[in-house]
Amino acid sequence: MIRRAISCSRIGVNRSAPPTVALPLHKRWFGDVFVPADMPVVKKKWRAVEVIKTTTETMKNVAAGKLPYCEKQLAIVRPFAGIMDPFFQLDEIPEEGIGNTLHVALCTERGLCGLAGSNVPRQMGNNIKLARQSGDEGEQLVAVYGKKGMTKISGMIPSTVDQLNIGFGNVKMKDPNFTFVCETVDALDKLDWDVALVYYNTYVNSQTFRLETIPVYNQAICEAIGARQFPAYEVEGDENTLVSILREYKMATLIYHGMAEQGASEQGSRLMSMDGAVTACKEKAGEYQKIYMKLRQTKITSELTVLAAGVKCLEVS
């Protein structure tokens, strides 16, 4: 009463005025205070949470079944692609001779996989924004693997919607096909770029993965790098032809390796995300169950009280 009198006096309201009836309604609906009449609403919410729990639990089981296969696939892909890692690599991207940049994002095919599905588009978007802010005159080209990744890039980075030069959807990240990767690399080589930055998540375990950005250079820069690297090897044939073949093969193996790493990271992240969703749904369903049973008990008690009062009135009369 004291707080109410102070608040009324501050805004110039008559303290003797009757209290408004809107306050209990606001408290009821915004404070999650239910009455026995709300039992159908509570039961509907309870069933909705149970449906979501069943769906997330199914997705968790699917991810748990796919993850061992992805790990087995990585054990084969990593040695296969690791042979080409030392070729045409520099400690830092050279500033001279770099004009157009191709951003190759190896994203997810489906959603609900947590950070593994959003960090690649976010990092790529930040690099494009930094290049534009620094006054880079080169063109920023974008290539995306994964249907969900193309959707995220269009939503998270509206400024690069018109820069999506090529996209590859319906990609089987769980079991990447090297022949398909070689065909996509041929399509990427038709674009005019000086350096290609390949973004993907490297799988560590079901709870940990790290974002990688690997550069691949054009023919001219690779020839300059090969002039220093090839004297350490025994080379037969034309070096220029050999550099062109190795450069294309390196990019194909890099994307093939990145797709396998991204697929394992996607399944591991989805497994952890769905596990947390299942736990949250179980807790929320338990809360609605307690509320429903309490309301049911209150309703039964009220009906028994009314019946007892009616019987007592008949006995008195």
Please state the CA-atom Rg, rounded to the nearest Å.
31 Å
**Which runs of at least 5 residues are low in confidence (pLDDT < 50)?**
1-31
By helix and strand content, what is the structural category? alpha/beta
Strand content: 5-15%
Overall pLDDT metric:
83
What is the terminal-to-terminal distance? 43 Å
Q: Which CATH class of one domain?
A: Alpha Beta
What is the number of helices?
8
* CATH superfamily membership of one domain: ATP synthase, F1 complex, gamma subunit
> What's the total count of β strands?
5
How many strands, what sense, and barrel or not for the largest sheet? 5 strands, mixed
Molecular shape: elongated
Labels describing this entry:
single chain; 317 residues; alpha/beta; Pyruvate Kinase, Chain: A, domain 1; 5-stranded mixed sheet; 8 helices; 60% helix; elongated; disordered N terminus
Structure in words:
- This protein has 317 residues and is an alpha/beta fold.
- It has a domain at 82-261: Pyruvate Kinase, Chain: A, domain 1, CATH 3.40.1380.10.
- 60% of the residues lie in helices and 12% in strands.
- Strands 3-2-1-4-5 form a five-stranded mixed β-sheet, with helices on both faces.
- Helix 4 (119-133) links the parallel strand 1 and strand 2.
- Helix 3 (39-82) packs antiparallel against helix 8 (239-316) and helix 6 crosses helix 8 (239-316).
- It is elongated, with a radius of gyration of 31 Å.
- The relative contact order is 0.15.
